[in-house]
Amino acid sequence: MNRKGEKIGWIGGWLGGFIWLILLSAVWIVQGKISNGMMGIILFIFAVSLIFMLAPWKHPNTKYWKLMLPIYSLFFISVALAIYLYDELKNVGLTWMSLLWIIPCLIPLVTIGNRKWNIDG
What we know:
By secondary structure, this protein is an all-alpha fold. It has one domain. The chain has helices at residues 4-30, 34-53, 64-85, 107-111.
């Protein structure tokens, strides 16, 4: 059974969720904030590694939520780091209530969290 679309969805979806980090890192480097940029690049590389290492077709009998949890954790660490490196939300024109926009990102945990790649298992 060819599940190419699902593989593209996993990789593309997660990469899309982290693309802001590499772009922000490039901005920091251009601004001369080399250490901030390098931290962002390292986190992005780690995220890409996790995306491929925890791909469901490599762990066909593991529930998706177990595979997504480490990637989600790194995502939230990345958001927290970006907020910290910008010296809090006020400097980017946001409030703590703005973080509520992250909640919809968690929908896949509920909708597909109990599924496995192995349909038969």
